[in-house]
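subagent[fold] <- orchestrator: predict structure for attached chain, return tokens only, no commentary.
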Amino acid sequence: MRPKSKDNSIKIFALASFLHDMGSDIVFSVWPVFVTQVLGANMSILGLIDGVGDALVSISQAVSGYLSDRWGKRKIFVWVGYLFGGVARIGYALSPSWQWLIPFRMLDRSGKIRGSPRDAIVSDLSTNADRGRNFGLLRAMDNLGAVFGILISLFFLKYLGYTKLFLFAAIPSFIAVVMLILFTKEAGQEKRIFKGLSFASFDRNLKTYMFLSALFSLGSFSYSFLIVASQRSGIHIESVIGLYLLFTLVASIFSYPFGKLSDSIGRKKILYLSFLCWGLTTLLFIIWNTYLGLILAFILYGLHRAALEPVQKTMVAEFSEKTVVASTLGAFQMVIGLCALPASILAGILWDTISPQAPFYLSLFLTAIAGILLTRVRETKKSSSP
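subagent[fold] -> orchestrator:
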């Protein structure tokens, strides 16, 4: 039986994640509208800003994962990452033009240094019987925090305006920082020999899985495109926020069940479900861009994220060697994150130069290829008691 203190540690990280994501989605539920309509950027610029941010996520998680394994330290990366996010939101609030958003977006996304070390802690505290459930709990709390953040944005934007709303959004992350510093301790790490990380040392399953995930990421452009595509249908800003709320609520409700289900029926089946939901989402934006179609699309998008995120990290953790879990998770995030940079930039260019449907066609094609490659991945169950 697992010690109660380990369950409490996971719950503390889940609560901190809830607070941080609440602040994040106060901002990001209105981010595309803020960037394009308030600060005057076009879709290519929006794609560039989002793409640079996503690329920095990959680099920051790779670096922090490597250093976390090398130094045997995890916690400091987590609370510093939350601190970066809080400071960045203050920067967003005070930015007079879209150019000023770039350094603060970079700082915000660099805050993802928390990701790989935190995920490594959760993996270390888990077994194969509950790892999916624990990662699902983190994603559920992420998304639940996002639900609260969107509701705050929906009800208070017209009263506070963007500047005051974004300043308020920094507060939950600062609370999370204080909570982690005061109420968590550095977990005792067993003595391990860290020999570094090499892609050549990955087994065939992990290499294939990373390649198909990278390919999928090339078509998985920023959610900003879904928001702007919805607004092109003529619906009001409150309705756009409402659609984003619907997506987040669905993701929040289903992340934990999907993660837990993957413990019993296997990771690949849940990943196939994720790819299917995303493919249907892109189809709806192509062929049924009505209000009813948008509602269904955002429900499917929520199911896609709920199925994808817990299982992605769980599979990587189970494919990796015990001594380099954080490094491997960071390397995985680096690969898919670096693909996200050209994905959003390319989507913006296709949108501006060909048609708003063009990015969705490309994404649908790449999702199908990734699904075919997934048939070549063999799930493994490694003994991994905490």
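orchestrator: received. Logging for downstream: Residues 4-183+200-374 form a domain with the Growth Hormone; Chain: A; fold (CATH 1.20.1250.20). The chain has one domain: 4-183+200-374.
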